Amino acid sequence: MATIKLPAVLVGGSSTSEVEVAGETVGELFENHADDHGPELRDSVIEDGEIKEFINVYVEGTPVDGLDAEVPDDAQVRVIPAASGGQ
Protein backbone atom coordinates (compact mmCIF):
# COMPACT_ATOMS: atom_id res chain seq x y z
CA MET A 1 0.00 0.00 0.00
CA ALA A 2 1.07 3.55 -0.65
CA THR A 3 1.33 6.15 2.11
CA ILE A 4 -0.34 9.50 1.50
CA LYS A 5 1.16 12.39 3.49
CA LEU A 6 -1.41 15.12 4.04
CA PRO A 7 -0.78 18.65 5.30
CA ALA A 8 -2.83 19.89 8.23
CA VAL A 9 -4.65 22.42 6.05
CA LEU A 10 -6.27 19.61 4.06
CA VAL A 11 -7.18 17.38 7.00
CA GLY A 12 -8.29 20.02 9.48
CA GLY A 13 -5.66 19.08 12.04
CA SER A 14 -2.70 20.75 13.63
CA SER A 15 -0.02 18.60 11.99
CA THR A 16 0.71 16.55 8.91
CA SER A 17 -0.92 13.13 8.87
CA GLU A 18 -0.13 9.92 7.04
CA VAL A 19 -2.54 7.25 5.90
CA GLU A 20 -1.95 4.00 4.02
CA VAL A 21 -4.17 3.51 0.99
CA ALA A 22 -4.32 0.86 -1.73
CA GLY A 23 -4.35 1.82 -5.38
CA GLU A 24 -2.34 1.51 -8.57
CA THR A 25 -2.90 5.09 -9.76
CA VAL A 26 -3.24 8.47 -8.08
CA GLY A 27 -6.95 8.50 -8.92
CA GLU A 28 -7.48 5.08 -7.34
CA LEU A 29 -5.71 6.23 -4.17
CA PHE A 30 -8.05 9.17 -3.72
CA GLU A 31 -11.16 7.08 -4.54
CA ASN A 32 -10.10 4.35 -2.08
CA HIS A 33 -9.33 6.97 0.56
CA ALA A 34 -12.81 8.44 0.03
CA ASP A 35 -14.39 4.99 0.44
CA ASP A 36 -12.59 4.46 3.76
CA HIS A 37 -12.47 7.98 5.23
CA GLY A 38 -15.08 10.11 3.44
CA PRO A 39 -14.94 12.33 0.36
CA GLU A 40 -13.40 15.46 1.89
CA LEU A 41 -9.81 14.84 0.78
CA ARG A 42 -10.80 13.70 -2.70
CA ASP A 43 -13.03 16.75 -3.10
CA SER A 44 -10.19 19.03 -1.93
CA VAL A 45 -7.78 17.59 -4.50
CA ILE A 46 -9.92 16.59 -7.52
CA GLU A 47 -12.31 18.66 -9.59
CA ASP A 48 -13.96 17.64 -12.87
CA GLY A 49 -11.83 14.49 -13.06
CA GLU A 50 -8.50 16.33 -12.72
CA ILE A 51 -6.12 17.41 -9.98
CA LYS A 52 -7.08 20.95 -9.01
CA GLU A 53 -4.92 23.75 -10.40
CA PHE A 54 -3.49 24.83 -7.05
CA ILE A 55 -2.83 21.36 -5.64
CA ASN A 56 0.47 19.59 -6.21
CA VAL A 57 0.73 15.80 -5.97
CA TYR A 58 4.09 14.02 -5.82
CA VAL A 59 4.78 10.29 -6.07
CA GLU A 60 8.17 9.40 -4.63
CA GLY A 61 9.18 13.06 -4.96
CA THR A 62 8.21 13.36 -8.64
CA PRO A 63 5.36 15.73 -9.52
CA VAL A 64 2.42 14.14 -11.32
CA ASP A 65 0.06 15.87 -13.73
CA GLY A 66 -2.89 13.50 -13.79
CA LEU A 67 -4.93 10.98 -11.92
CA ASP A 68 -3.71 8.16 -14.15
CA ALA A 69 -0.12 8.46 -12.86
CA GLU A 70 1.09 5.09 -11.61
CA VAL A 71 1.78 4.56 -7.93
CA PRO A 72 4.22 1.78 -7.04
CA ASP A 73 3.41 -0.39 -4.05
CA ASP A 74 4.84 1.14 -0.85
CA ALA A 75 5.27 4.54 -2.55
CA GLN A 76 5.09 7.80 -0.65
CA VAL A 77 2.55 10.25 -2.08
CA ARG A 78 2.53 13.86 -0.93
CA VAL A 79 -0.31 16.32 -1.41
CA ILE A 80 0.76 19.96 -1.17
CA PRO A 81 -1.54 22.92 -1.71
CA ALA A 82 0.16 25.77 -3.56
CA ALA A 83 1.07 28.69 -1.33
CA SER A 84 0.53 32.27 -2.31
CA GLY A 85 0.64 35.67 -0.78
CA GLY A 86 3.20 38.29 -0.03
CA GLN A 87 3.75 41.55 -1.77
Automatic annotation (TrEMBL):
<dbReference type="InterPro" id="IPR016155">
    <property type="entry name" value="Mopterin_synth/thiamin_S_b"/>
</dbReference>
<dbReference type="Pfam" id="PF02597">
    <property type="entry name" value="ThiS"/>
</dbReference>
<dbReference type="InterPro" id="IPR052045">
    <property type="entry name" value="Sulfur_Carrier/Prot_Modifier"/>
</dbReference>
<dbReference type="InterPro" id="IPR003749">
    <property type="entry name" value="ThiS/MoaD-like"/>
</dbReference>
<protein>
    <recommendedName>
        <fullName>Sulfur carrier protein ThiS</fullName>
    </recommendedName>
</protein>
<dbReference type="InterPro" id="IPR012675">
    <property type="entry name" value="Beta-grasp_dom_sf"/>
</dbReference>
